[in-house]
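FW: tagging you since you asked about this chain on Friday. Here's the raw sequence from the shared folder, copied in full. Didn't touch anything.
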Amino acid sequence: MDAQLKRGLLDVCVLAAIKSEDSYGYKIIKDLRPYIELSESTLYTILKRLESAKMLTVRTAEHDGRLRKYYQITHAGLKRIEDFKSEWEEVISIYQFVIKED
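HL: got it, structure written out here
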């Protein structure tokens, strides 16, 4: 799969994983596992990119005596998901064109 396309899809998957509630790294990976395999290093790269793009915010809280980073989606992140949904119709159309038989 094209690296740029995959990157965009992974970004939206991570945003969707935290859309309904704040979450942390291990839980995001666990929630995505039925749909896509994602390593910790890949996830944290995505989270940093999304934070830089202001699509999520991060806060630190203590959990079982350790600090844990919690990620929360922002308005910009929710907008990205909505934009993706609109764009997906075009992707499906292109896919159907590519796979059609001659």
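FW: The chain has a mean pLDDT of 92.
HL: agreed, and The domain at 3-99 is CATH 1.10.10.10 (Arc Repressor Mutant, subunit A).
FW: great, closing this out.
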